[in-house]
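Sequence design from tokenized structure. All designs in this work follow the same two-part layout: the structure record, then the generated sequence. An example of the structure record is given first.
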């Protein structure tokens, strides 16, 4: 059976990938299946650079086709922050602390100015392909004033969808995948990767 690795240690991302990116043809693994895999330093200055670093580190280690996701939240009132630093915004990868910091930085900002977007860049690297496949998805919303909902991960409880009158943490994983930045990027990948990949 062919194998594809998703170069992530984030259980929320892993779940979203596994839900929509699967097939009879290959098995999907993530870094959660390899807990000893060392921390990859995300030293790039863009989502694409960081996703490329992650995809290549994992592809080289396993010699298998590998997809990495680098993603984050860009808040307009914060000039695009936390952006590529979204995971480490309040220190060390703590969702609750990140959300608290975001609320405090946006204190006093009125709802109409709390616009933001989620961005996901996926890089697919393969030992037999010279060039990576790169896709990007974006999704716009508002930053609420109170966390709401228990589903999703990261900033989802603060990411408000005005059309649905719900946060991203109050919709199902399938609904999220239908509309989200990552869901859109995965759709683009699905349209392209079979024509791109050289399995052997
Ligand atoms: O690098 P990997 O191992 O994939 O896991 P990570 O959590 O560190 O992932 P990133 O470096 O791409 O950082 C992305 C951060 O942006 C936030 N984020 C990304 N996608 C999100 C989503 O769909 N919902 C909520 N927050 C999201 C969340 O805080 C993530 O930790
Ligand atoms: Mg990371």
């Amino acid at each position: 059976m062919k194998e594809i690795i998703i170069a992530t240690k984030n259980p929320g991302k892993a779940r979203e990938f596994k839900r929509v990116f699967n097939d009879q043809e290959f098995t999907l693994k993530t870094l959660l299946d390899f807990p000893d895999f060392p921390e990859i330093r995300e030293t790039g200055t863009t989502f694409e650079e960081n996703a490329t670093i992650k995809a290549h580190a994992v592809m080289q280690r396993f010699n298998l086709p590998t997809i990495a996701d680098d993603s984050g939240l860009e808040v307009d009132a914060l000039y695009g922050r936390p952006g590529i630093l979204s995971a480490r915004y309040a220190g060390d990868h703590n969702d609750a602390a990140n959300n608290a910091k975001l609320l405090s930085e946006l204190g006093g900002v009125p709802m109409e100015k709390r616009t933001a977007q989620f961005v996901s860049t996926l890089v697919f690297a393969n030992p037999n392909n010279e060039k990576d496949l790169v896709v990007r998805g974006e999704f716009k919303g508002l930053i609420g004033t109170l966390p709401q909902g228990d589903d999703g991960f990261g900033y989802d409880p603060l990411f408000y969808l005005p059309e649905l009158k719900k946060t991203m943490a109050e919709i199902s994983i399938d609904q999220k995948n239908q509309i989200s930045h990552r869901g859109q990027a995965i759709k683009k990948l699905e349209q392209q990767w079979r024509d791109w990949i050289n399995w052997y």
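Residues 2-196 form a domain with the Maf protein fold (CATH 3.90.950.10). We note this feature because it recurs in several other targets discussed in the main text.
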